[in-house]
Amino acid sequence: MAELFDQHLHNVTVHFERAEEYPAGQGPLKTYIIEAHDLNGDSPSHAGTKAVLGNLEQRFSFQVEPTNDPTLVTLAKGDARYFVDFLNPRFWVVHTTANIDPAEEYLKDLVRRSWNLDYAWLPSQVLGHLRRGRRFLGFNVEFDQELFISEGASEEIREQAAVFKTRYRGNLGEELIKSLSSDAFSRDLCLSAVKYSISDSASGAYIKNELNASGRIMATGNSISLHLGAVNHLVNIYAQMIQTLENELSLAFVHGDGGDELQGYPLTLRLSEPVLDFPGFVDEVLSCREQTRLWGVVSHEERDFVRAEVVDLHSASRLRLDFTPKHVVVYLFRGSCGNSVARLLRIIQEHLDPTVYFELERPTVFDQCKEA
Amino acid sequence: MQRSLIPVNAICAFCKKIPPWPTVLFEHGYRVAGIDHPVLIPPAFVVKPDVITLSRKSNCALLWECKSGGNLEVDQFNRYRQFLDFVTAKDIQRVTGIQFPDPETAHIQVAYCFLQEAIPRVLELFGSEQRIPVVSLGQTTRSDAGDFHDEALNQAFRAGFTTPPIEQVPWLVVADSQTTDGELALYLLPTVVTLMVRQTERASIDDLLTQTFLDWQCVSPETRRTLKDKATRVLKDVCEAEFKDHARYCKPGERHHDVTIEVVSELMGQEASAQTRGLQKLAEQVKSAAKRLDEGRPYIPPPPPTEQWSLRFPTSD
Q: Which of A279, A270, A251, A252 is nearest to A329 (CA)?
């Protein structure tokens, strides 16, 4: 696989912005992170992953072919061919050089219709962190508060909803981000992608990556090793994030030798400004629609407070959410999936408040990503 | 929302760091160490503190009796007075399994936690000369009578502290033996929905309860039995009514020795927009099932269809 992609990188020169124009096999190399569970909902093993892949073959008419590497298979459908690396069976790494439109369409269908698969959901702060120490080549911002405005909201509320979408390419990314972060725009500055390059001056090897918020890395350059190194770094950080959320937050009263113990804690996501349209926000979060994909039933409701019993449709996990106009409290049940919390945070960042972040009791990977 | 569970959850929350909720017990070293443990007072009285909090630093356990104030039982308070004369820390360790750092020198103390609205009546019934501290839970939470032996904690409760709206208390213990069928449905049915999403074939009632209630492992066998009976009743009813297209209630049989819920839903196989609409409808159905059960309207199966007489025109003469 590495040789194939190395050859690909040497043979094609691409612009990420025009990725959809390249024919199959001529576009940028694209690598996706997919979070997976076994068919019974547990964290998967290598054997369990093979069962999941078999299930995908059956349900989506993908052709699954083994390779010499026992933790690497190819999936093919139409013109699109993917290499699926499940060395870490919880976080698959999926590579393809297919044209971006069909490649993403098939993958999107796969994830949307599989309760045990989901994308990675990178907070804006983590995207910012992952370009540090690398040559910064640009960034995308996507912030749109309109998603959480209900149809019946007043014109006054509609007018207040901020939308900020921009794309910057060039050498002044650092200065521009610093400038935007220090003024009123910081409230709307939600990074949705970062572009950077990594190079080794001794060998002349280099790679340019564009990493987006759902864990997709597009690559062009001349070194597959540098690309795989960047992917590996991302997977490790993301796995650490999700495991931290599950280890820290997962709630249960546990009966042990020393008595009962309340393990885990509900996580409070504090908003910097009250929500513009509180009912609209709650309705959309519990709408079952993309991207939130949360099913919920309200168990208690007051003017500025809603409590809901929730099911994440991407992992069949049980959650409880408390909403107020100033904060959201997330209860992650024992055995539930940390990716549900990461997705909710990302969606709140994109559509409500990019400054919201994980504030856990102890210093964790999230603090490192924020402060580095 | 079951108001009687607000004080139970407030005590649990005080033992944790859950902003913006106060951390008064956490700061003084107390952690939740027991939930719903019955304790026998010789010869034959039983008390069941809702929460036991233990500070390993001060080698002291607080046994909290939590009440909304809806039904005050004088008998129960008298039992707690006797409790202090008979029960020691070592007894508590033996009965509940809670381990004190040094059982010989350990202290135990009973404390009450009431919603603020009940306090005037509590003080009227029991007077302010209490051996047992009475904490009133409201906009400002404070102890209104009695003293905690732990001096630092006593000062904190005596001074009082601002508390967010009590209805917003972190909701960790969501059911007890008093929980209504409707309320139980609101917590239990979402767990049935997880089975539909996973397209799991079936699950036992015990599995569903374990996945629904965070404290299932810790509550007393009596509470567990009561909740299981209610859950069985609720699931049987809802599977015949609102969930009839999605789940089936299966009596114990040769293959399954316990009642199971079998998933028959085809919801997750539908195309995107039909699936979203179906799931939204399911949320409405959970709400209407809960409302119906709380109004005491169990599902009544329709009468079997009666044989129809075919219409005959009168014969003309």
A: A270
CA distance A180 to A173: 10
In chain A, which among 230-259 make CB contacts under 8 A with chain B? 251-255, 257-259
Token pair listed for B240 = 């015949």
Domain ranges of chain B: 3-168, 181-294
Residue given tokens 């935007």 in the structure block: A180
Among residues B229, B246, B231, the alpha carbon closest in space to that of B282 is found at B246
Cβ(A234)–Cβ(A211) below 8 Å: yes
**Would you give per-residue pLDDT tens digits along chain B (317 residues)?**
899 999 999 999 999 999 899 999 999 999 999 998 888 877 778 888 999 999 999 999 999 999 888 777 777 777 787 777 888 999 999 888 899 999 999 999 999 999 999 998 888 877 766 778 999 999 999 999 889 999 999 999 999 999 999 999 999 999 999 999 999 999 999 999 999 999 888 999 999 999 999 999 999 989 999 999 999 999 999 999 999 999 999 988 777 788 999 999 888 888 889 999 999 999 999 999 999 999 999 888 777 776 666 666 666 55
**Three-class SS of residue A43?**
coil
Q: Which domains are delineated in chain A?
A: 2-119 (3.30.310.50), 124-247 (no CATH), 266-371 (3.30.160)
User: What is the rounded CA–CA span in Å between residue A217 and residue B135?
Assistant: 56
Between CA A182 and CA B122 the distance in angstroms is: 55
> Does residue A202 belong to the interface with chain B, where contact is any CB pair within 8 Å?
no
Helix (H) or strand (E) holding B134: strand B134-137
Number of H helices, E strands in chain B: 10, 12
B304 touching A (Cβ < 8 Å): no
Shortest Cα distance, chain A CAs vs residue B195, angstroms: 8
**From A249, which residue of chain B is nearest by alpha-carbon distance?**
B18
Gap from A50 CA to chain B (nearest CA, Å): 18
By Cβ distance, the residue of B17, B214, B283 closest to A296 is B283
List the CATH code of the domain at B3-168. 3.40.1350
User: Furthest-apart CA pair in chain B: how many Å?
Assistant: 108
CA distance A67 to B157: 66
Other Cβ atoms within 10 Å of A255 Cβ, number? 17
B69 three-class SS:
coil
Alpha-carbon distances, residue A320 vs A118, A317, B164, B168, B240 (angstroms): 20, 10, 19, 13, 27
The full 3-state SS of A197-242, as one line of letters, equals EEEECCCCEEEEEEEECCCCEEEEECCHHHHHHHHHHHHHHHHHHH
